Amino acid sequence: MPPMLQVSNLSKVYHRGRFDRTETFRLSADFTIDEPGIVGMMGPNGSGKTTLFELITGSNAPSDGCVLVQGRDIHRVRTDERDRLAIHYHQSYQVRHFRSLYPNALMERAGSDYPVVHLFDEPQFNTQDGYIGFMLDFFRRLRGEGRLVFLCVHPNERFHLEILQEICERFIFVQKGTVMPIPDYDSLVSHDACRAYLGDLLSERTA
């Protein structure tokens, strides 16, 4: 049985311009998730979180490396079927579109009828009318159905951290294009870079 998600030696490099190849940003990632679960992701703005989501869903082409979803290279799958492997919900749950330089007729079928990896990019947690509970139940239901859920949150309220602690089984911290897998919440809040990122918010929580 292949891993749910395998990100192998993945990189995305941006340059100043078409003719000026001065490097302006580089994202590097290499990690594997074997089983269904809920993964919390955080990091400063501009660190590369959304770029990583776009690479996992195949809506952005890597400079090097590959992304395998249940053993299938997402960038070799038909663009109209990639969301059957990995789907990206951006804030208001608008699904990102795909692009490819190759016609679908030359690409592989997804081999799945329903998304395997669900990536939520800064979902809005409304504090009224039990909405948070509804969202957490939805994430748990996806996990219970054998899906892999990514929850990208930019914590600016104390309860955002409590949500991550309650529902996420593992974490990824992204900083300046470096993707760091972290095994649990305690390790996350003990990580120096993460503590610096959370700052007073973390102090308020532990006070």
Structural write-up:
This protein has 207 residues and is an alpha/beta fold. It has one domain (5-92, 104-202): P-loop containing nucleotide triphosphate hydrolases (Rossmann fold, 3-Layer(aba) Sandwich), CATH 3.40.50. The protein has helices spanning 49-57, 131-144, 158-167, 185-190, 192-198, 200-206, and strands at 5-15, 23-33, 37-42, 64-69, 72-73, 86-90, 94-95, 117-121, 148-152, 170-175, 178-182. β8, α2 (131-144) and β9 (148-152) form a beta-alpha-beta unit. The mean pLDDT is 90.
CATH second-level architecture: 3-Layer(aba) Sandwich
> Ends: how far apart?
45 Å
Query: What is the name of the CATH class?
Result: Alpha Beta
Which percent band covers the strand fraction?
A: 25-35%
Question: How many distinct helices?
Answer: 6
Overall pLDDT confidence:
90
Q: What is the string of helix and strand elements?
A: EEEHEEEEEHEHEEHHH
Can you tell me the CATH topology?
Rossmann fold
Q: Indicate the percent of residues in helices.
A: 25-40%
Q: What's the total count of β strands?
A: 11
Number of domains: 1
Provide the gyration radius in Å: 17 Å
Ranges with pLDDT <50 over ≥5 residues?
A: none
Q: Looking at this structure, what is the CATH superfamily?
A: P-loop containing nucleotide triphosphate hydrolases
**Structural class given helices, strands, pairing?**
alpha/beta
Strand order of the largest sheet: 7-6-8-9-3-10-11
The shape is globular
Q: Main β-sheet: number of strands, strand sense, barrel status?
A: 7 strands, mixed
GO molecular function: ATP binding; ATP hydrolysis activity
InterPro entries: ABC_transporter-like_ATP-bd (IPR003439), ABC_Transporter_VariousFunc (IPR051782), P-loop_NTPase (IPR027417)
Protein name: ABC transporter domain-containing protein
Pfam family, one: ABC_tran
